[in-house]
UniProtKB/TrEMBL annotation:
Any single Pfam family the record assigns to this protein: YgfZ_barrel
Name of the featured protein: tRNA-modifying protein YgfZ
A Gene Ontology BP annotation from the UniProt entry: iron-sulfur cluster assembly
tRNA-modifying protein YgfZ-like beta-barrel domain span: 229-295
Region (Disordered), start-end ranges: 296-315
SUPFAM superfamilies noted in UniProt: Aminomethyltransferase beta-barrel domain (SSF101790), Folate-binding domain (SSF103025)
Species: Aliidiomarina iranensis
């Protein structure tokens, strides 16, 4: 079984299976589903077809994120796949605004099993597990959904009764992949804290600036067109005695002093004791910046070089 090592997961051979107990499945169905969700979410659902998926966000009236999701069609319904810790509050907000629409929005997580297939032989492994070869960004095999996140990474959502009887790696492997790929891993502790641009959702094609109005749109659009966003998602690498929890504060060295720099979104410790951090930090962060975790004065982190991996394949 492959160890947790930096930049080795998506190219693993043989393919890795990663269990995702922390992923929720929110289901929306009814004749008003598309119309209602179009007025609630940052993505443009007119571009959501049976063969693709959309990344998007659900925001409050101030444009701050309740959740980040991947949306897929399931017959006449739409499934929102998101961090389980954000589902309860996000679902409550959607239900509150849906009372005058012909739509039913429920947490269907208990009916599904979610797992990830990663590596050079991922397609072959998915085919073995689901009985068909995924050829689209979103492929279905019976009641099983397969989302192609990259050429070597597939997200599978299957009924609980169809869960593969195979040994799977823990969810920390998924967190590591998200950090390396630049995909935001928003948790409940971050809800109503960041606008989409602060976690790079716009760069990942998760925000439409051409669709009509939706909740939080005014703030998001103004920030975009006036260039007012001063914070972005960053990938740090370094060492520390303790792995920081989500929302832990980071400090940056300025001369001989340390000042607050931002907050941790997610963090993982690799098998070689190196720690990777996903954090929201100043967008003009210097490539040579020195950072540390507040309260861990011996910790030391530096930014990872930027790459094109933060671009979504789902265009």
């Amino acid at each position: 079984m492959s160890g947790l090592l930096a930049n080795k997961l998506t190219n693993a051979n043989p393919a890795l299976l990663i269990e995702l107990p922390g992923m929720a499945v929110v289901k929306a169905s009814g004749p008003d589903t598309d119309t209602f969700l179009q007025g609630q979410l940052t993505c443009d659902l007119t571009h959501l077809e049976q063969h693709n998926w959309l990344l998007g966000g659900h925001c409050d009236a101030k444009g701050k994120l309740w959740s980040i999701f991947r949306a897929v069609r399931s017959e006449d319904s739409i499934l929102l796949l998101q961090n389980r810790s954000t589902a309860e509050h996000s679902l409550a907000q959607l239900q509150k605004f849906s009372v005058f629409s012909k739509i039913e929005i429920t947490d269907s997580t208990e009916h599904f099993s979610c797992f990830l297939v990663a590596g050079e032989q991922a397609v072959a492994k998915v085919s073995e597990l689901v009985g068909g070869t995924p050829t689209e960004l979103h492929s279905t095999f019976g009641d099983t959904h397969v989302l192609s996140l990259s050429p070597t990474l597939y997200l599978c959502v299957t009924p609980k009764t169809n869960k593969p009887n195979a040994r799977m790696l823990p969810e920390s492997y998924w967190h590591a992949i998200q950090i390396e790929q630049g995909w935001p891993n928003l948790a409940a502790v971050h809800q109503s804290t960041f606008i989409p641009q602060m976690v790079n959702l716009d760069s990942l094609n998760g925000v439409s600036f051409k669709k009509g109005c939706y909740i939080g749109q005014e703030t998001i659009a103004r920030t975009h067109y006036k260039g007012q966003n001063k914070r972005r998602l960053a990938h740090l690498i370094g060492t520390a005695e303790s792995t920081p929890a989500p929302a832990s504060e980071l400090e940056i060295k300025l001369g001989e002093n340390w000042r607050r720099a931002g907050a941790v979104i997610s963090a993982v410790r690799y098998d070689n004791d190196v720690i990777a951090i996903q954090a929201v930090l100043p967008s003009d962060l210097d490539a040579q910046a020195e950072l540390r975790i507040k309260g861990q004065n011996d910790s030391k982190f530096t930014p990872c070089p930027k790459s094109d991996e933060t671009e979504s394949i789902n265009e």
